[in-house]
Amino acid sequence: MKARVALLGFGTVGQSVARLLIERHAETLELTHVYNRDVARKQVPWVPAGVIWTGAIEEVLSARVDIVVELIGGLDPAREYVTRALESGASVVTANKQLIARHGAELMALSRRHGGHLRFEGSVAGGIPVLRAIEDGLSADRLVRVAGVVNGTSTYILSRMEEGATFVDALADARELGFAEADPSDDLTGRDAAAKIAILCATALERTICPTHITCRSIESIEPVDLRYARELDCTIRQVAWAEAGEASEPVVAAVRPALVSRQSPLSRVAGSQNVVTVQGEFGGETAFFGKGAGGDATAVAVVSDLLAIVGTSDGTGAGPRVRPGAGTGVGPGARRAFRRAPSRVSADYSAPHYVRFTVADRPGIIARVAEAFAKQDISINAVLQHPGMPADRLPFVMTLERCSETRLDAAMTDIARFDFHVQTPVVLPIFEGAL
Ligand SMILES: NC(=O)c1ccc[n+]([C@@H]2O[C@H](COP(=O)([O-])OP(=O)(O)OC[C@H]3O[C@@H](n4cnc5c(N)ncnc54)[C@H](OP(=O)(O)O)[C@@H]3O)[C@@H](O)[C@H]2O)c1
Asked: What number of other Cβ atoms are within 10 A of residue 396's Cβ?
């Protein structure tokens, strides 16, 4: 029996999903509906004649399809459509990170209540099957940390800056090549990565956290000089998102920061739209997943693999989801562990060595005053780096600090901000030398 599949959204990913379904999986999965606003302009000749093109969501939701694939993006009306599809007993596959990060717990509960499945592999790291690998391949371990470089726009910009481009030029190139959206603010500020790390945290650490409670820092403060200093320290700079969990009563430590990452770390080994996700297990140690983090075709592979997992192709049953034994009961290959627990508090009080770049109007005694402010917070200086021949009225120098908590560092930086020698706000970056 073929599973009947309705597609909501015929954009970049939706079109790739339709192609993959039609060209490779027509024997198992039957595309029955394509829903999109102003649908007439979306119609293409390569979709089989029997498929219903519609701009009326009611037509899709009342058709009792087996699986609804949500690829319109955003929170509204995606949340309403997914909710109604799950309430009707259908399964849902989505690549919508904001929807799952914010409402994963409620939607997962709904899927369990009504006997459908909810899968969202494409919502994190595009084509890398990281959620499935964590849930299926690492389930025996106790995972304590998940980290990633999961935003292609930021990685592209920082890689270009490594080659000497300014931030503004790198962003313009990213836009021209389609790596950055018209409004890239979620990518640059870290909000996009925060949604992804919230989903990874729910899956790997089995702790539900609200993405809006994760503090983010933008990559916009990074300048080419930071990448030059990073190179001297055998590092590069990437936007890193991570979450760590200890006891259930303790908050989850999670943050998104531009950070210096050692050239030895897997986090440094991505460029362009590639993503990397690392997980740290108590028993198995560190495991890294690399691959294409975005793009219609790569994401479509994740989406269609979710469809195949639901219809049971992978375990050979071939049964449609509405009749599938075990659906929604928490057993069998369709079961998900993510988003089952009550929400956890989030803290950003992590500890790491740090890089601080000051830009000052030079005069005697600056380093002594900065050092005193750090000492007051019990923070030790590791090294001071300064390039010769820089202008005295706008002099950059860098201090690297021994491992310290971000809270103490923030307190020191608040003191330091009061000094009148700054010509620019200092740039503060954690340094990740291997595992975080
Ligand atoms: N692109 C990627 O590389 C990628 C990677 C991973 C995950 N994702 C996720 O996949 C989802 C889809 O992304 P995409 O890149 O395919 O986006 P997209 O190209 O903008 O496609 C979205 C489609 O949905 C339609 N749509 C939007 N709002 C609608 C509404 N209210 N009612 C009906 N139709 C609506 C759009 O129609 P119009 O043509 O009228 O705008 C468009 O055809 C998003 O959640 C995104 O975050 C994308």
From this structure: 21
Residue of the CA atom closest to atom 41 of ligand 1: 11
Is the Cα dihedral 106, 193, 429, 412 positive or negative?
Answer: negative
Asked if residue 151 has its Cβ within 6 Å of ligand 1, the reply is no
Instruction: Please indicate, yes or no, whether the overall pTM of this predicted structure exceeds 0.85.
Output: yes
Neighbours of 168 (CB within 10 A): 10
Catalytic residue among 97, 196, 292, 376: 196
pLDDT of 330 above 80: no
2 is known as an active-site residue:
no
Handedness of CA 78, 70, 217, 144 (dihedral sign): positive
Q: Which of 44-48, 81-85, 95-99, 389-393 has the lowest mean pLDDT?
A: 389-393
* DSSP codes, 264-296: TSGGGS--TTEEEEEEEETTTEEEEEEEE---H
Mean per-residue pLDDT of the chain:
92
Residue 149: alpha-carbon gap to chain centroid? 7
Q: Evaluate if residue 146 carries a pLDDT over 80.
A: yes
